[in-house]
Amino acid sequence: MKKFLLFALCSVLPLCAAAQQNWKAVVRYDKQDAKTKLTEKLTEYVAYDTQAGKDAGKVPSSKGQTTFAKKLAKDLKRIGAQNVTVSKSGVLTADIPATSSAPLPTLVFAAHVDTTPALSGKDVKPQIHTKYNGGDIVINPQANLRLTQYNSPQLMSARTHDLITASGGTVLGADAKASAAILLTYADYLLGHTSVAHGPVKLIFLPDVLNGKGVRALDPKSLQADYAYVLDVGQAGEFTSENFNIRYFTAVFEGHRGVNPGEAMYSDFADNLLMAADFHTLLPRQRRPETTAGNRGFIWVNAVTNEGDRSIVKGEIQAFTNEEMKELSDLVTQSFNTVKNMHSKRKGAELTFTDGAKNLHPALPPQMLSQLQNAMQQEEITPAPSVRRDNGGLAAALTAGGLPAVGLFNGSFNTGTELEYADVNVMESALRTLLTLTADWPVETN
Ligand SMILES: [Zn+2]
Known about the structure:
Blueprint: H1 2-12, H2 31-45, H3 63-78, E1 82-86, E2 92-96, E3 107-112, E4 127-129, E5 137-140, E6 145-147, E7 163-165, H4 174-192, E8 201-206, E9 227-232, E10 238-243, E11 245-254, H5 272-282, E12 298-307, E13 310-319, H6 322-342, E14 348-355, H7 366-378, E15 384-388, H8 393-400, E16 405-409, E17 412-413, E18 421-423, H9 424-439
Parallel strand pairs: 3-8, 3-9, 9-16, 10-15
Antiparallel strand pairs: 1-2, 2-8, 4-7, 5-6, 7-18, 10-16, 11-13, 11-14, 12-13, 17-18
Bound molecules: zinc ion.
């Protein structure tokens, strides 16, 4: 109601213009028009094959990613974005200059341009299913490929929404081209309405994020920005505020198997294969990937190799907190020490740990999350903080590189599969969240 009053007052009193913060009071925004733009952009973008290469050592791992980045660059230049560049590694950066002279922080909105290396993204034929009215959505009748409320539970909250699927045999590529569609529509609104007061904004599009190589193509500090939001998969309101800390471990067992096994008992025979197997078996069963969920971390072994008298066990620990990481590291050490005690004839045994990704949460300034939640609430979207039971992807990598970043929903689901779909209404919610977040960011005083 308050918002409506402000709108009504400000539309008759030009003096309000300086005081108003809400972008909706300035911009003529039509939901249906926004949905049409988002649909047009997404269906146009999925025609670009940007599948990430599996093994290629270089970034970008496929040409299509650069072709697509250049296409976005051209569109951004056309609508008035500044400093639009595509680097040799295929990283696209663009600036939307500040319209306010107030000392506002620089915000970054980022997305990846690659699609999964696991399934083709070539010749994608998008299908638009308008006003979903419940029931199954047939993607491909010959292959009996369909979205149901069992394989896609998010459909239960998608009634009346417009949905976009592929046609079988490929991904849709909405992970993360739905983000590109949202960001280009967002840029179009901001650049077309310079009366909306906001701080500096940077848009970043990265290649090869899904194969883990592209995050190294960008130095987050070089952006000289304050806060970043990474648009990726998810339902309206979802944002990533937590991910796993990861610690790798390597246990090396040295034995002596080069004796006649019939004479082993009275020799210095020591079986490194058995030591490795014992170590694996002794790791706690109740802290394995398949026995843990929610915010409970786990230990898992992902390789056991033998080289003659040496056996090497490699694994990792994933935990949300430093306390849990210590607890699980101690369990690994205990199992290792037990194996050492069981095999007194061993020639050597060594356990080493190396730290990997960090939970981004402790590094996030609280205002990043509070501004985001404020923006959602203004748009009548319920904020839904989520924990990622993995390394946190691009948001965690940017945060580790010195630019605090939060993952944010883009309305794509079943990503990386033939059942992938985009919910245009959820994409539109993301667009409004970004616009309000940008226009309502308060001046910070330190
Ligand atoms: Zn993604």
